[in-house]
Task: structure prediction
Amino acid sequence: MGIKVDDYDLIELFECEPDYLYEKEQGIFMINKMDDVGIRLLMLVSIHEQRCKIDLINAHNDKALIELKFMNVIKIERKENTLLIISKDKKEPYTVWFTPRIALQSITF
Result:
């Protein structure tokens, strides 16, 4: 079935267009945004495999701060200045905030 995602919502939130890695029909793209303190959010999505990966990277030294992988994603949507990643395995969506700075929802391990 694939992930439901609106390219226009992503463009508004990330302030750039998704970069499709192959043909657009294959549904694999990445998109990124950097905040004002040098934290870069990189999101890689495979629509048909229902996978999403988020990396937070320190742009000053190009070191990864955190890497999150989501499986069984059914929808990625924008709600104002937040990104919601909705998985069929979870009751609540995972939230990424874009203002005032990029922030991730806390995770309990």
Q: What stands out?
A: The mean pLDDT is 93. Strands lie at 4-5, 19-20, 28-34, 39-46, 51-58, 63-70, 73-79, 82-87, 94-97, 103-104.
